[in-house]
Design goal:
Structural class: mainly beta
Helix content: 10-25%
Number of domains: 1
CATH class: Mainly Beta
Number of helices: 2
Largest sheet: 13 strands, antiparallel
Strand content: 35-45%
Radius of gyration: 17 Å
Distance between the termini: 44 Å
Number of strands: 13
Length: about 190
């Protein structure tokens, strides 16, 4: 199989996102702590998503209060985000800062952000790489006129699912997502009960 060009790889990823009805993935997330300039503690999340807009996220590892919490959004039932951890239940408005990033975790959002940054970018040739035990394509590009100065995207070769996304600026890595597992379960609306 021939290595795709940067444009072909972005197009293939867009097609993958458009045709994937349901998915589940787990990722590790770190972002830079501005006072120290180093990446902060590793956070781990699992997302279940069903097109067009059903989502459930489990906070696997973040902090003692949040670990184990499950956030669910099912707009067929209401417009709010419902959170539960054991017997504790909370309801958030979509625009509440506590849950703002919840809507930035699905493939559609990630694709739109990458497309925005890729427009007019200077891209390196796509490379074949190993990410853990998986074979991937790595695309590195420099967005024009953006605080993000470098994006490194690694997609799994066979499924074109993200394996790693790193955003960097003049100070170094701003954020890093490493996708440790993913699946394509047969999710239904009933899996997103509140």
């Amino acid at each position: 199989m021939q290595t795709p060009t940067p444009q072909q790889l972005m197009q293939q990823f867009a097609q993958k996102v458009a045709r994937t009805r349901a998915y589940r993935y787990t990722w590790e997330f770190q972002e830079r702590d501005e006072p120290t300039g180093k990446l902060g503690a590793k956070q781990i999340y699992t997302l279940e998503f069903l097109q067009p807009h059903y989502r459930k996220m489990t906070i696997v590892q973040r902090d003692a209060f949040s670990n184990g919490a499950v956030l669910t959004h099912n707009p067929d039932l209401d417009t709010k985000v419902h959170a539960r951890k054991g017997f504790i239940r909370r309801v958030y408005e979509r625009n509440d800062p506590e849950v703002a990033r919840f809507f930035e975790t699905d493939l559609g959002y990630i694709l739109k952000d990458l497309q925005r940054l890729f427009r007019g970018a200077k891209a390196e040739p796509v490379k074949s790489v190993q990410q853990g035990q998986r074979n991937g394509y790595q695309l590195v590009f420099a967005p024009p006129k953006d605080p993000v100065q470098r994006v490194s995207l690694t997609l799994e070769r066979a499924d074109l699912m993200p394996l790693r996304i790193e955003y960097a600026d003049a100070k170094g890595t701003r954020s890093l997502r490493v996708y440790t597992e993913y699946a394509f379960p047969n999710l239904t609306k009933d899996d997103f009960t509140i």
